[in-house]
């Protein structure tokens, strides 16, 4: 086992530099996502406290794609939902650049309007935009994810990967600074996976920061993963990390800090 594999109660990324304090949260101008000592637990009907995350710290630079790997039940989706504001941490502080968007693993939970154009425009109703501004944002967002030709397409005719790209386009239309992506390619075939990966890479060209979750069991060093220019991936069979890599074990107490 690699000597850098260490027993701990936290997964860890190297310490911040040039930090400042904002609303009791330690932040750095170079980071889009920062979490300090985050914990999350649930309480059963019997009053028992069950920890899901314990003392987690994470920092991600602006304009990069990072991949967080781990098996089922390790807490990575819980962490993503905490960072997205869908769950409140029981302990710790965090800062995530705004606007931020969360893209669900199942696009059917997010793509709800009858046509592609209507779905991408759906979230823009909260902004004071003219019809021309809405149209421009929708067209630019669909172009970024390679879905311009589908603008009038009924969403029920789309593949799973195409729906994921529409969900990403909806986030881009809102000019998000941070994309939080929950195992987008789990149920997709290779063709759809490639389309989603290309869409995310196009987002990065605009200084969007992305944190992508993926199961360890679904991860291998294939041409698909090698298309990431930022973030992390394994080089099999020796599992040498080529970028910063974080993995969990099933008991949530191991970390691999590979810088």
Automatic annotation (TrEMBL):
<keyword id="KW-0067">ATP-binding</keyword>
<dbReference type="GO" id="GO:0009941">
    <property type="term" value="C:chloroplast envelope"/>
</dbReference>
<dbReference type="InterPro" id="IPR015856">
    <property type="entry name" value="ABC_transpr_CbiO/EcfA_su"/>
</dbReference>
<dbReference type="GO" id="GO:0005524">
    <property type="term" value="F:ATP binding"/>
</dbReference>
<dbReference type="Pfam" id="PF00005">
    <property type="entry name" value="ABC_tran"/>
</dbReference>
<dbReference type="InterPro" id="IPR027417">
    <property type="entry name" value="P-loop_NTPase"/>
</dbReference>
<dbReference type="GO" id="GO:0055085">
    <property type="term" value="P:transmembrane transport"/>
</dbReference>
<protein>
    <recommendedName>
        <fullName>ABC transporter domain-containing protein</fullName>
    </recommendedName>
</protein>
<dbReference type="InterPro" id="IPR017871">
    <property type="entry name" value="ABC_transporter-like_CS"/>
</dbReference>
<keyword id="KW-0547">Nucleotide-binding</keyword>
<keyword id="KW-0813">Transport</keyword>
<dbReference type="GO" id="GO:0016020">
    <property type="term" value="C:membrane"/>
</dbReference>
<dbReference type="InterPro" id="IPR003439">
    <property type="entry name" value="ABC_transporter-like_ATP-bd"/>
</dbReference>
<dbReference type="GO" id="GO:0016887">
    <property type="term" value="F:ATP hydrolysis activity"/>
</dbReference>
<dbReference type="InterPro" id="IPR050334">
    <property type="entry name" value="Molybdenum_import_ModC"/>
</dbReference>
<dbReference type="InterPro" id="IPR003593">
    <property type="entry name" value="AAA+_ATPase"/>
</dbReference>
<feature type="domain" description="ABC transporter">
    <location>
        <begin position="33"/>
        <end position="255"/>
    </location>
</feature>
């Amino acid at each position: 086992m690699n000597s850098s594999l260490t027993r701990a109660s936290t997964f860890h990324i190297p310490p911040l530099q040039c930090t400042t304090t904002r609303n009791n949260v330690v932040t750095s101008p170079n980071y889009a996502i920062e979490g300090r000592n985050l914990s999350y637990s649930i309480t059963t009907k019997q009053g028992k406290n069950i920890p899901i995350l314990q003392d987690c710290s994470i920092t991600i630079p602006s304009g990069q794609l990072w991949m967080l790997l781990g098996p089922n039940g390790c807490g990575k989706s819980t962490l993503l939902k905490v960072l997205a504001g869908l769950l409140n941490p029981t302990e710790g502080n965090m800062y995530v650049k705004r606007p931020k968007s969360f893209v669900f693993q199942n696009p059917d939970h997010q793509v709800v309007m009858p046509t592609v154009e209507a779905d991408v425009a759906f979230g823009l109703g909260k902004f004071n935009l003219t019809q021309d501004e809405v149209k421009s944002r929708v067209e630019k967002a669909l172009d970024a994810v390679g879905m311009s030709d589908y603008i009038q397409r009924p969403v029920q005719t789309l593949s799973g990967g195409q729906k994921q790209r529409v969900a990403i386009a909806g986030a881009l239309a809102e000019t998000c600074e941070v994309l939080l992506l929950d195992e987008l390619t789990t149920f997709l075939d290779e063709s759809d996976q490639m389309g989603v990966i290309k869409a995310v890479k196009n987002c990065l060209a605009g200084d969007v920061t992305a944190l992508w979750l993926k199961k360890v069991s679904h991860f291998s060093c294939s041409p698909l993963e090698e298309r990431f220019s930022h973030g992390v991936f394994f080089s099999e069979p020796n599992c040498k990390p080529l970028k910063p890599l974080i993995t969990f074990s099933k008991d949530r107490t191991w970390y691999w800090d590979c810088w």
